[in-house]
Design a protein that fits this description.
Layout (H helix, E strand, L loop, with lengths): L1 H21 L12 E3 L7 E5 L3 E8 L6 E7 L3 E3 L4 E3 L10 E9 L3 E10 L10 E10 L1
Parallel strand pairs: 1-3, 2-9
Antiparallel strand pairs: 3-7, 4-8, 5-7, 6-7, 8-9
Length: 139
Amino acid sequence: MKYLSTIICCAAVIAAGITFSACKSTAVDLSNCERVLVDDNNNQDVTVHKNKMLCVKLKAQLGTGYGWSVAGTADILSLQGQPDTEPAAKNLPGGAEHQVFRFSAVKAGSGNLELHYIRPWLKNEPPAKKFKVKVTVVE
């Protein structure tokens, strides 16, 4: 009986370890970004060098159906793939996640970058939030 209790206890510890390691929060790698913009950078002017990466990391609660979408970008920037999602810290239910967009600065100049926080299936609804910056790309 003691042997069976030991096996059950070990199995429970292993199962808990697997569960918690699967829930481990993983941050999005931003090491290739020259600039990382966050919610507080809304309505600011930013500068980035040509051929460098501009990243935008915005809070989102994707479980509500809302998410960030690129509403407009100047031809000085090129969106690089789909946004990454960074899970909520400590995997708190309902905690704020982040969406990370990467833009390559493809040519010198300036223009606006705008993202909208929307539910994509609600076509006639105004965005719940907007994020807009003026971007200047320099050589």
